[in-house]
Amino acid sequence: MDNLLHAPVSRLRREFEGLDFHPGHLPWARRVSEGDRDAQRELAEAVRACHRLTVEPYWHRGRSELVALSTRFANLVLEGGIDLLLRSICAPLVRWRPPVLEAPYPRRVEVHLQGRGLIITPTVFSKHPVSFLWDPLDTAQPPRLTVPALRRPLTGTGPAEADGSAAWNLESLLGRTRAAALHVTAEGCTTKELARRLNVTAAAASQHATVLRNTDLITTSRRGGSVLHLITPLGLALLQTGALTEQ
User: Are 111 and 135 within 8 A, CB to CB?
Assistant: First the structure.
């Protein structure tokens, strides 16, 4: 809200140019874009009210999903660097062909980063599977690639209830415990953590991890005195298809 209330008038005008307003709202929209403080405060209060109704009730779960995805991205970088991370993001919608990253956009356009970098932004409310956002008039800011953090919408329905048949199919393929193990590795885990999450012995957890690794669904690497298990792009694709939820 502070950013909105302190945005330069030139930025507000640019933001409002591409929006279609109801004729009855045009005078108010014009006041906002011209920097009228009362109109801007009305907009801020409307956004707050919208947040209370549409975001706040779901934010706890949304935040959990964001943290889990950020952890997985960090582990992918540790495992295989930026190359593995970019190859794992939303394929086939996003394709990494070094040094070019191809992403959906309404028209064909080439964006040269020129040292600005690229911000990868997990989202929980976007209706698009992936989006590329950039401001051609602001060459100082890095573009953003938004990727979904959710496998299904944020609703009051439990994930297992939302797609129980898909979860059952994945469990039938891998077995219930091994399917749960695949889900746990999406966040990255040690053998000890895997055993605790599955409520099995360390030896059993190691055996499940070995089977998943031998079928290229996870990778295993040493981190100091521990062994880190991390899901592969193939394992993630299987997980998303099966819509498995945490046990």
Answer: no
User: CB-based contacts of 75: which residues, under 8 Å, 6+ apart?
Assistant: 187, 188, 228, 230
Q: In the numeric block, which tokens belong to residue 39?
A: 């109109």
- How far is the CA of 98 from the CAs of 83, 95, 118, in angstroms? 8, 9, 14
Q: In this structure, what CATH number is given to the domain that contains residue 165?
A: 1.10.10.10
Summarised one tens digit per residue, pLDDT across range 40-65 is 999 999 999 999 988 888 887 777 77
Interior/surface letters 20-35, b for 16+ CB within 10 angstroms, e for the rest: eeeeeeeebbebbbee
Domain count, the chain: 3
Question: Does residue 205 fall inside a structural domain?
Answer: yes
What does the alpha-carbon distance between residue 101 and residue 136 come to, in Å, rounded to a whole number?
A: 18
- 134-181 pLDDT, tens digit per residue, is 888 788 889 999 888 775 555 544 444 344 444 556 666 778 888 889
Domain hosting residue 24, numbered range:
2-54
Q: How far apart are CA 243 and CA 231, in angstroms?
A: 15
pTM for this model (two decimals)? 0.50
